[in-house]
Each structure stands twice: as structure tokens, then as C-alpha cells.
Amino acid sequence: MLRDILNHAMAQMKDHLKLVTFNCRSVKSSINEVKQLCDSFDIIMIQEHWLLPHELSTLSAVHAEFMAVAKSAVNIERNILIGRPYGGTAILYRKDIANSITAVDSLDPRVCAVKIITNCRPVLFVCVYICLLILVMLNVLKITLLLVLISLLCMKTVMPFIA
Questions:
Q1: Range of 71's domain?
Q2: Which residue from 64, 115, 144, 151 has the least number of CB within 10 angstroms?
Q3: Number of domains the chain contains
């Protein structure tokens, strides 16, 4: 039964996925642009949504045909804003391919990832936000190692796509 459902979902998956990446600099002020992207693409990778952790669920309500996986760059554990109220990453994807998608926890608020099972192989989509200040402070090698670690943790063979 489950195998039939998965086979049906895979059969309905398109031969190709249309993907876009968008630095929205506040999803609240660019909501119309995000909705337009949802009308044209299957996967939307968003950087700088500027949402607080309790606001992340609003991304799944941006468009009726989409769901979202998101990370906030803001720490509010002590009821005080800690960290930049900027940043944040999200991956929005069509609900009709949701059965093929698994969220991958990166343990980093600047990195959001999903694994998509395709007809060919699993594909890891990674959305990363790195502001210029962080880029200067961080070693690019550390970021590369983080992405490789994510790949190794979520699957044996991976075709990564990094935005």
C-alpha cells in the first residue's frame, strides 16, 4: 500500500524541477514577490527572511500550494533578541512533491537543507545565508566542511545543490 502511494507520487513528479534562489531582505515586505515566484517555480530558496523563530510557520502559508522548511538566525531563548534580527533561510516547495522531501537539520541557523528523492538519485538542496561580515570572519573551508558533513549525515550518495 505505502509502496503504491510512493510510486504514484514519484510518477506525478515532473521530469525536472524549476528552482530559484531569492534574497528577499524581509519576507514580510517582499511577500508579493515570493508569491509570484511560487507561481513559476517548484522550489524557492530564500535568504534573509528576517523572521523570528515563532514566525517561521508563516512561510508555509505564503502560497496555498507550498510548504516550507526554515531556520531563523535570531535566538530568543531568554525572551531577549540575541543575534542579528537579519538573516534566516528557508526552502519553499510544492505540496505535490512533499512526499519526496525530507528536512535535514543543519544545526546552524544560517543553513537550511532538504533531501529530495528523485527518479535518478537523492538530491540535497542547501540554502545558505552568509553576510559579508560573517564571510570575512569565517573560513570558507569551515562552511565547506559543514556542507560535506550534512551530506554524509543524510545520505550515502548525494548530488548537492547549494544556493
A1: 2-162
A2: 64
A3: 1
Residue 37: phi and psi, rounded to 5, are -65, -40
Residue 87 buriedness (CB in 10 A; 0-12 / 13-18 / 19+): buried
Q: Which amino acid is at 17?
A: L
Longest dimension (CA), the chain: 52
Q: What is the value of pTM for the model shown? A: 0.75
Which residues of 12-150 form beta strands (DSSP E)? 19-23, 43-47, 66-71, 89-94, 101-104, 111-117, 122-128
pLDDT surpasses 80 at 6: no
Residue 158: pLDDT above 60? Answer: no
Q: Name the grid cell of 102.
A: 525530507
Could you identify the residue written with the cell 500550494?
A: 65
- Phi then psi for residue 35, to 5 deg, are -60, -40
Assess whether pLDDT exceeds 80 at residue 76.
Answer: no
Contact 159/118 with Cβ under 8 angstroms?
no
Q: What angle do CA 127, 98, 150 make, to 5 degrees?
A: 35
Tally the residues of the chain. 163
